[in-house]
Amino acid sequence: MLINGRHYRTIWLAEDKKTVEIIDQRFLPFEFIIEKINSSTEMAIAIKDMHLRGAPLIGAAAAYGMYLATLEAINNKNEQHIKNCSILLENTRPTAVNLKWALNRVNAELEKVSSIEEKISTAYKLAELIADEDAETCRMIGVNGVSLIEEIYEKNGRRPVQILTHCNAGSLACVDFGTATSPIYEAAKRKIPIHVWVDETRPRNQGKLTSWELEQNKIPNTVICDNTGGYLMMKGMVDFVIVGTDRVTRNGDVANKIGTYLKALAANDNNIPFYVALPSSTIDFNMESGDMIPIEERTQDEVLTVDGLCKDKIEQVRLFSYYAKAANYGFDITPARLVTGFITEKGICKPQELLNFFD
Ligand code: MRU
Asked: Is the CB of 351 within 6 Å of ligand 1?
């Protein structure tokens, strides 16, 4: 991803190879801060408190967290520490399956070696591999998904393609490229004119990340409040909806940021293609259907207050009375019947083809 003209990933190992660096998303788009993560506990906090977020990135962060745990284990001569850290990391956020996927993958390899030194080198290699794989997988999502944008462009007489997205399923949510944004970046590379409608995505306003990221990568975009998409679709102002996901179950149901379901309903009512872009690490092959997905509930404060820039300083303001109560469900489920297709690193498939596709 380009930031101020320079290529960045969202997470990487620092030069000392003992700490991890991340783009701290809490201060974007106003301040670009790189946070140093010094321990597995700090990584767990970074995931839980959303210094970083997005399903694929949470997976990569958990893998790096396990590497830090192995370094701590050699210092305190306590192998049990690695197991405890895995539990700590797993309990940070419940909905994105990538977290568990990455931890299972690291733990399976750690079990195969016995000395702490071997565990360190195994966890190190795997964390770097998971990050590299995620970047490549997301790049391939773009290469595969761009054909859909090209088709719409040709069908509509080569006018700019109008795409709507929800939340941030961009480079910031992954190691690089993003999922929903990857076909957009690939289309821009192929000189297809595009305009993106960016849902603000209350309560945490991940739309500000998407808008900033697209702006940094020179993709025209317009922020809309979460209630606007249906109207735009009805007016013929949206050609294509593309979102990311935190977990897809065996039957093709999709968990994604709260509000995704409403966009899928509106798209369906207006015959607009609704695509979900994902790496295969987001498919939960052990879960039958969306009603079984644990949905994260976060604090009321995220709904009752909002962060923004005030006289060059990031401030938080309260929006509701001090007595107001709020419910804060982080995700909803879009049933497979509302999904036109999945864009993956392997290609594009329909929800009912998912299992055979990845057989
Ligand atoms: O709560 P968040 O910001 O971690 O939620 C992220 C989303 O819902 C994204 O759309 C999803 O993880 C897809 S990321 C490529």
From this structure: no
